[in-house]
Amino acid sequence: MSSSRKVTTVYMHHPSWSALPKEDQELLKLAQRAAGNAYARYSKFKVGAALRMDSGEIVPGSNQENAAFPAGICAERTALHAAMTMLPRGTVESVAIVVPQVKGKDPVTPCGICRQALLEQENRQGSPIRLLMGIVRGPVLETYSMDSLLPLSFDRSFLRK
Ligand code: THU
């Protein structure tokens, strides 16, 4: 018999950066700084990311665009792929994503491709990744695993080993 099923997403909403522990505020600041190195010539939408490894290492990233639009890459994947190139056996603990100026009130959440890439990293490292999504002088959304942003996902369990 057919049945309707419900997916619930849990996330924290923090009214400001100061509601978070110092090391999270620090990670958000590093993501904000990374946004300064974005190459957002076409969208004018600068995004910064900063990834904290369980070893304490920090890896920044920013969006890098291209005249051939699909060739551009988001801040999150820039940081993630840099981290995995430098520390292929590393574990990503937290990712901060910051947009310096945004017209709306809510922080930016990762695009679908970045969600998929972060999910792959969770599976690769065998532990969940925490996301902090913030706006400068604005609120922060926090998730505790990619399952919150990408339910009913496709992953390696569907592929033949
Ligand atoms: N972008 C990111 O870097 N991260 C996000 O989470 C959302 C979108 C970038 C991609 C593109 O360079 C610009 O923002 C506009 O879509």
Q: Could you please describe the fold and organization of this structure?
A:
The protein contains three helices and six strands, in the order βαββαβαββ. The chain has 161 residues and is α+β, with helices and mostly antiparallel strands. It is globular. It starts with 11 loop residues before the first strand and ends in an 18-residue tail after the last strand. Tetrahydrodeoxyuridine binds next to helix 2.
Q: Any descriptors?
A:
161 residues, alpha+beta, Cytidine Deaminase, domain 2, six-stranded mixed beta sheet, 25% helix, globular
Q: Quick recap of the structure?
A:
25% of the residues lie in helices and 20% in strands. By secondary structure, the chain is α+β, with helices and mostly antiparallel strands. The protein has a six-stranded mixed sheet with strand order 1-6-5-4-2-3.
